[in-house]
Amino acid sequence: MIESRSVLVAGGAGYIGSHCCKALSEAGFVPICFDNLSTGHRDFVRWGPLVVGDVHDHALVAETLRRYDVVAVMHFAASSLVGESVADPEKYYLNNTVGTLSLLRAMRSADCLRLVFSSTGAVYGEASEGLIREDAPCIPVNPYGSSKHMIEQMLADYRRAYQMNSFVLRYFNASGADRSGYLGELRDPETHLIPRALMALQGHVSDFAVFGTDYGTPDGTAIRDYIHVADLATAHVSALHLLLQGHVGGRFNLGTGVGFSVAEILSAIAKVTGKQVPLTHKSRRTGDPAFLVADASAARDILGFRPQFSDIDSIVTDAWNWHRTAHPAR
After folding, report:
1. Closest residue by Cα to residue 113 from 68, 158, 66
2. CB-CB contact of 284 with 139 (8 Å)
3. pLDDT per position as a tens digit, 243-264
4. CA-closest candidate to residue 175, choices 115, 96, 262, 244
5. What are phi and psi of 166, to 5 degrees?
6. What digits encode the pLDDT tens for the residues 78-87?
7. What's the rounded Cα separation, in Å, for the pair 177 and 184?
8. All structural domains of the chain
9. Is the CB of residue 26 less than 8 Å from the CB of residue 240?
10. What residues have CB less than 8 Å from 80, skipping those under 6 apart?
11. What is the band of 287 on the pLDDT scale with cuts at 50, 70, 90?
12. How would you classify residue 119: left for phi > 0, otherwise alpha for psi between -120 and 50, otherwise beta?
């Protein structure tokens, strides 16, 4: 019988990790936030203790796992900017792939053999214009996606060799903000479409641009599957419950199955805010596929994943409410 309710959340002071800490607490767990605060935020750590450290520090991770009697790990600690990964691939293979290897070594040494891993739809690369299933070929087109795919392969090997069970959750465009206003998407620099557009409306961004209007899509702009961060957090907790029940894990897409173009997102922002985002048009960025939309039916069947907040109006409304509170207009 598993008595401890402590879960180590690597990268728990970041955007998605902090939302998952909140969801864990609401589900009766104690999230142990492990974060080097290089991109995370100390004031996002509200639901459990903070251990300031890096996943490369194998000894500190192992000591933390033992000290808190951790029963499972959620892993969000990674660099995640596609453009930066193209410009500086070494950083991504070191931070993401090598960093995860260090974390896995620590987990084995502490006999903690359950993991929920934050992966990405970027592992698929330039997918066809249809819903992407988990058995689609993984041919990443940027080092960010490649680093995550390497980790997925490592986890499959660790399951076979060391009986380390893991859920690999490939989510698409995480978006939105905590509905109660505690947390939101805050990066420097901010590169994601929705928060960057909202920051442009507030006067915090002066160079908002749409990258590529010549994709083979109905309006020429790239199409993505947007999933509310609160729904992502719920899915992670569901995966944790299954691991604690003895499930071996697997790879699952998290998305809505509905794609929206950049132009459609900007229209939704105008509808919610009553303002038009000032913008310029630029050429495509290297490593950006035209179409990424998930088939999440496997997650629905196994994890019970049914997004509650992922309609575009709710995503934009929650993000706008948080931005207006946390970062008022200039």
Report:
1. 158
2. no
3. 999 999 999 999 999 999 999 9
4. 262
5. -150, 145
6. 998 888 898 9
7. 5
8. 6-175+227-254 (3.40.50.720), 193-224+257-326 (3.90.25.10)
9. no
10. 120, 144
11. low
12. beta
**pLDDT-above-70 percentage for the chain:** 98
Q: Please tell me the predicted confidence (pLDDT) of residue 2.
A: 58
Q: How far apart are CA 154 and CA 93, in angstroms?
A: 13
Task: Say which of 144, 158, 171, 226 is annotated catalytic.
Answer: 144
Is 144 a residue of the active site? yes
Scanning the structure block, which residue is given the tokens 């060799």?
161
Dig out the tokens for 285 from the structure. 């960025």
Pairing mode, if any, of strands 114-120 and 226-228?
Answer: unpaired
